[in-house]
Batch of 4 targets.
Target 1
Amino acid sequence: MTYTDTAMNALRDKGDELADATVAALFERGEVGKFNTLMRYVSTAGAPLPDGLPDVAREYLHATGAPPSWVDWGEMEKARLFFLDNNVHISTALSFASMPACYVIPHVAGLLSATHALKYPSKRMAETGQFTVYLMQPDAFEAGSRFIPAAQKVRLLHASVRHHLKREGRWDVERLGTPICQEDMIGGQMLFSLLVLDSLHRLNIHMSVDGAEAYFYAWRVVGAMLGVDQEHAPEDLEQARRFLDLYMTRHMGPSEEGVLLTRQLVDLYEEVVPGTFFDPVVGALIRYLIGDTSADWLRVPRTAWDTVVRTLPSLLGVLESIEDRSPLGAWALDRIGHLTAVFELSSLTRGRVMHYAVPEQLKKEFGVSSGVPRTRRWTPPAPTVTS
């Protein structure tokens, strides 16, 4: 598909018809509270739905209870192995590149600020991390998995935000289009896929072409399950580069909501890091991964650690080379990476399973691989928009 301003503008008027109709019916019938209560018992795929679940919700869950028919399971297995091999690096990229990149888009930062989750950044990060872990389990799409119910709930969460903002007149539809529109949903998919791969490349993580393409493919599947119109979503990394470059140049800029969200993100991870000596590393890593312009917009402070962090790719490159050459080294580094990722997620979730619910109201003050050979090293598609 050819991405132009005209094509992107058309995507700003589109939401998610199925999820939007479901949420509208739940609110019209006053069944949101009942739905949220019962959905806490729907946490695994294939489990019987609870008695008393509203009919409209039951129909939605049946309609969205299976992955797209076009899924290539071989590619999904490659993606799972890629994730296992790079889980700590992917978590780093999601936390310090993908999330800050969301915050540098003013209307997206405003949307995040409109929900009560603004006061609980650890909950927002934990939900993102848990969602990704669910996706990369061997049984992610089988009976008993937690991924499909999580995707179904996230899709309804997005629809509920659209419902509130449009119904209450707290969103400038004429200027901004539909809240959480197709352009923004595809943009989010690119930030969690292509930008993660870009960040891994910037950190000098060794990736094969097959591994990178499989990881992007997995997020295509996720996008479809979250209501992204596949007719307009990028099909490969080259199309993804064209979309993401145009999307960011159309929308990125400074905002007070973006600054506040970034400050909360930095504070959160500074609490996770023991002591205070290494606290500036968090901001330095964000600055390194998203660039000085975006970091300045988000008011990420400049420190002496900015220079230190620039040496990180060299260190990681050495470790990656050890992993490439030594099976024992690969095993040891994989175990360290796994334990680090588990520690980070458990610190954010505090050992709990995060539940996704349809919010009944918004904030009042809204203002806007070990299994994949590392041959043919992957390099990002070239930028398509000159600065």
Note: The chain has a mean pLDDT of 83.
Target 2
Amino acid sequence: MGDTQSWTAAPDAAQRARTVLAAAWSCAVTADGGREEFVGAHTVAEDGRVLLSVPEDSPLVTAAICAPRGEPTAVLEFADVAPVPVRNRIRARLWLAGWFAAEGDHLAFRPTRVVLRRPDGAVVVDLDEFAAAAPDPLALAEARLLTHLADCHSDAVERLTRLVEPDSLHGAVRVQPLAVDRHGLTLRIERARAHGDVRLPFHRPADDVAQLTERMHVLLSQASAAACPRALQRQRTDGDG
């Protein structure tokens, strides 16, 4: 079930893909009909190449050495998982098809096709845009920021719902922070049998945690000046009764 709040000021597909790549802690590699899972084994070069540290006896090493250079030899899959417990925690999946080459102590993977799948559908990311894009500056801090907001400031999350259009809150049973990036905060609105996401854009992008704190204070000030949604007022009344 979709929600009516406008998704304005959001990162484009290339930046979203690079953000998933930068923040992911694990990846799955499919090559030569086999599949391996690696945890904490990859880093990302500025141009989007994935540098993977694998055991010397990994089949990937043999595949990289034996495959003709430049031919697609593997697919890498990354999952973007919401740090706060919500329904359907996979926010996006990223697939990179391409080829490996041995470089020093690691394998370097150069993508020839990049596909990003989000809840609203899949998109093929332009390779030049992918190589030139930078991950969101808040990507590595996002998990800590969202869990702190959910665990320690549930009152602030409830206050922020005052900025959500009433139709999007109809039937809501829980609201949780789902994502944050330099452009805005996304709330997950859960209902009895469905859910939807609503984005609250910042008045200007945030390039670091200090700026994010200021942007959040602005949103909370706007929320404090708004009326409490009737849907949540009814829920509180029903719960108290």
Note: The longest strand covers residues 90-103.
Target 3
Amino acid sequence: MSVPAFLGGLGAAALRRLDPETAHGLAIRALARGLVPPVTHEPDPKLAVPFFDMVLPTPIGMAAGFDKNAEVPDALLSLGFGFVEVGTITPRAQAGNPRPRIFRLPEDGAVINRLGFNNEGHGPPLRRLAGRVGRPGVVGVNVGANKDSDDRAADYVAGIAAFADCAAYFTINVSSPNTPGLRDLQARDALDDLLARVLEARDTLADSGRRRVPVLLKIAPDLTESGLDDVATVSLGRAVDGLVISNTTLSRAGLASPIAHETGGLSGRPLFRRSTAVLAKMRQRVGPALPILGVGGVATAAEAAEKMAAGATAVQLYTAFIYGGSGLPAAIARDLARFVERSGHASVTALTGTRTAEWAARPLD
């Protein structure tokens, strides 16, 4: 990660020369140790977004992948994020794929990663999240399956059971391209079985008097129109609570970087068009009420507004944070409040769905 904005001038040039994963680790440590100044102003009330039984102070969230082990959710919230999603977390710790496995593509405003769900397993993140129960701030938990699991659906169920008392919401990640076979869980029959088991586990916990934690499904941007049909049919049939659209892409269309050939998932600016079109197509399929988090290529308030216009309830970013630094979420929120005011709307929620038809008409190229 490029982190000069995190540590000011101290070692900025040296940090830019570090490999991305080492620099990312330094950013996490800087946040954990309180070296990154928090935002001091309150978000504009026009940015508040109802979200299940919660309210997001702004619709700008941190996507899963940055804080894999729930080490710094409150530090991220203090930077102006309206919500944070930690993970992906698998039942057992795993090292992920061999390094190097993160590649910056500054020419394209993009990143390629092939991390492979590297994380500490349920134990350490659970202790950290349990320790923050009762604090303000919406912190979702993104759960996944171990690479060598014999029953991947059971791994997701285990994640629901483990984090039910400390997750504001769950995201079921079946769309990472870096775990072999994981995206196969998006196929109709496999997805139906997975959601049936996950939602049954969640509902059983809720029936015992615990909070009914919303469950969202995160899908890939590389699905075909028929694949989107399958996901929509199963999601509505199983009454999933929401969608996250989308994960990284395998496409390399239009890239200028000389390292665009690296394998893994591509995120950042090149993903905006495709992910936003997929979002709009899914919005048309699932109707206006289902919450959708829009992810992919958001780096400015204008892009956040456009993602919401395509049908997103709120948005998430990660790659832009790599390039923009710790001041980015608050800056986007301030600019978005001005955009809403200039548009004559009373609230940012009025943007959602205003351009769905136009985005949905775009081909998946």
Note: The chain has 13 helices and 13 strands.
Target 4
Amino acid sequence: MTAPVYDDQNVFAKIMRGEIPSHTVYEDEKTLVIMDIMPRGDGHILVIPKAPSRNIFDIAAEDLNAVMATVQKMAHAVIKAFDANGTTIQQFSEPAGGQVVFHTHVHVIPRFDGVKLRPHTGEMADNEVLAANAEKIRAALA
């Protein structure tokens, strides 16, 4: 499979350039963490590498390592912030794999015993709820 070329007009590239607003939860030299605006569960966040890559097939190993270190940090933070019982970690690559935004990203979703993930409806969450959830996670990181 020959992967298509990275498109720097994707929504996450625009967020990193400040062209689209987002609820930033955490940032370091190599990664950015934002709230998913269509959360499948309370506290659903996205870990994004700052370096451009389309998905698992073209991300540089050092960027993938940085992403996964941040994923682990965020998994601990969402468990603490939401008193969750576990997490679901997801990464989708290419349309056949379920990828919709073509900039590498990893979903971190707090999970609770007996509570199913909400369906991916494409409906955006309430901005105030996203802001409050982002603050809970930032507080758990402090």
Note: The helical segments are 11-16, 61-82, 127-141.
